[in-house]
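Letters spell out the chain; backbone shape is given numerically. Both lines appear below:
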Amino acid sequence: MARWSGAHWRPIGVNQSAGTSEPNKLLICHVMQGSLAGTDAWFRNPRAQASSHFGVGNDGTVYQWIDTDRMSWANCNANGRSVTVETEGMSGTPWTAAQVDALGRLMRWANRQYPSISMWLNTNPSTGSGLSWHGLGGADWCGHPSCPGTPRVRQLGDVLARAKR
């Protein structure tokens, strides 16, 4: 079982699948387009047909919904090789300092848990590894080009800097 001790364990029993033989290579950041509480409720609904391993609130609170050895339903064709993290807020707003800190700590843990998740910014959705953002993958990753939003993508370097401390 792969659970991060820095997260509140809030397991969901729906909207996930068994893991694959492919190693996790990506930590993919998303935006909730809403609140941590609202996303928590939505992921518990079987009709959602969506989920994430983690969620990070504006105050830095981290929820873990799914063991990272299982697949979340967030990245379409990248589900079998990714750890997914949703972030509270809207795509046009930057992450808070508390979110950057929490994401950095999560990235450090993901790299230690899965050495195949490289400690750099991934720019290759097909074969790359490392810290990624949902919009990078285009249609192959469910076609959400604005996720998590330009201000947040610009902060990925800050997340990596925090992860390397």
The chain has a mean pLDDT of 97. The chain has one domain: 8-163. The longest helix spans residues 97-113. The domain at 8-163 is CATH 3.40.80.10 (Lysozyme-like).
